[in-house]
Design brief:
Elements (H helix, E strand, L loop, with lengths): L5 H10 L10 E4 L2 E4 L8 E2 L8 E2 L9 E2 L4 E4 L2 E4 L12 H17 L6 E4 L4 H9 L4 E5 L4 H12 L4 E5 L2 H15 L4 H19 L4 E3 L4 H5 L3 H4 L12 H9 L2 H15 L2 E3 L5 H7 L4 H4 E2 L2 E2 L1 H7 L5 H4 L6 H4 L2 H11 L9 H9 L1
Parallel strand pairs: 8-9, 8-11, 9-10, 11-12
Antiparallel strand pairs: 1-2, 2-6, 3-4, 3-5, 6-7, 13-14
Length: about 350
């Protein structure tokens, strides 16, 4: 079992509690396979999982399939063990902010800093980690990238030293097949997202750290996406409310998180994700539309809660997704075009990635 003690998982199976106080788990307990409700820990099965054909590592299996989140498998029967709750929202915004603050601060402050580094982009999510944990800060990006500039300014405001992982075309070309091998994914979006994570983790491991703290999950839990802000007008979501759209993007985590976890482990570090702790998830599920998005301010409740730890300039700062803020996506596209894969071609970046494998 990875991610949590067996007794906690056993009790969660007995009680049906989907959020028993962990940051995720997956593996075998009492002869059955389980994976937590948000899929925070990867688990893969082969053709005969009842007889040991399963693993946390893709490379151990000949035909791996991602085990579904919130499920239990034993004696050939796959059944649902947990679903995310749908609690009533907080009565008022001040109460919501106080609960968010308590959950976030408790989860971050519980992180052990031995062997720890922090992936730091200068946004509110990673800055909450930087403000409360004594660990070195790393940012990855091309020299002119938004993330490097934002991380430098935020590190100055926090009076912290920043280590910059400067991305290069050579590093991207080398990392692409390594990411594909680690994650089992070769589509353009997955590789673009994984590139800055992988190259940051690689540098962190080379510097002697074996754990990397990230602000993962905050965008999904607290309303950080434009498609959530613009619900129901945005065609990328089906929900007719902001809260419904939040739930839609939370539901994508079980498929997305294994990519990041496997990329980081492939680079030699273990991810640490305090903003994905069950106590934070429980609070986030109780936010209503205006607590998630206030006007044009996404992640409103989280930003308000962060003001207890961060300067307002950081707490209220907008940030681009890592693949764009680091310019990894732009430069991967540039490399594809330089190699002859033009934008008029179908999935030109994906074709270029295949050529590197």
């Amino acid at each position: 079992m990875r991610g949590a003690p067996e007794d906690i998982v056993r009790e969660a199976l007995t009680s049906g509690d989907p959020l028993p106080g962990t940051t995720g788990f997956a593996g075998a307990v009492d002869g059955v396979l389980v994976r937590d409700v948000l899929g925070r820990e990867p688990l893969f099965v082969g053709t005969d999982p009842d007889n040991g054909d399963w693993s946390h590592d893709l490379a151990d299996l000949t035909a791996p399939q991602l085990f579904p989140a919130g499920r239990v498998l034993g004696t050939g029967e796959l059944r649902e063990a947990w679903t995310l709750p749908d609690p009533e929202p907080f009565d008022d915004r001040a109460t919501a902010v106080e609960h968010v603050r308590e959950a976030v601060e408790t989860s971050v402050d519980a992180v052990e800093t031995d062997g720890l580094a922090i992936a730091f982009s200068g946004g509110v999510d990673s800055a909450l980690l930087a403000a409360r944990l004594d660990a070195p800060l790393y940012v990855a990006g091309f020299p002119e990238s938004h993330d490097v500039e934002a991380a430098r300014s935020a590190a100055d405001l926090l009076d912290r030293e920043l280590r910059v992982v400067e991305l290069t075309h050579d590093a991207i070309e080398r990392a692409v097949p390594e990411i594909a091998a680690a994650t089992g994914r070769t589509d353009a979006m997955s590789v673009q997202i994984a590139l800055p994570l992988y190259l940051t983790a690689e540098r962190v491991a080379a510097d002697g750290f074996d754990r990397l703290a990230l602000g993962q999950g905050a965008d999904e839990l607290f309303g950080g996406y434009a498609k959530v802000e613009k619900a129901p007008e945005d065609p990328r979501v089906e929900a007719d409310t902001v809260r419904g759209a939040q739930r839609e993007v939370i539901d994508t985590l079980p498929d997305q998180l294994p990519r990041d976890v496997l990329a980081l482990r492939g680079a030699g570090v273990e991810p640490v994700t305090p903003l994905l702790h069950d106590r934070v998830v429980s609070v986030a599920l109780r936010l209503d539309d205006q607590m998630l998005v206030d006007g044009e301010t996404r992640k409103w409740a989280l930003r308000q809660a962060a003001l207890g730890s961060l300067p307002e300039a950081i707490a209220m700062r907008d940030k681009k997704a890592a693949q764009y803020g680091s310019l990894a996506a732009r430069e991967l596209d540039r490399l594809a075009r330089q190699a002859g894969y033009k934008r008029r071609m179908d999935d030109h970046v994906g074709q270029y990635i295949d050529s590197l494998l």
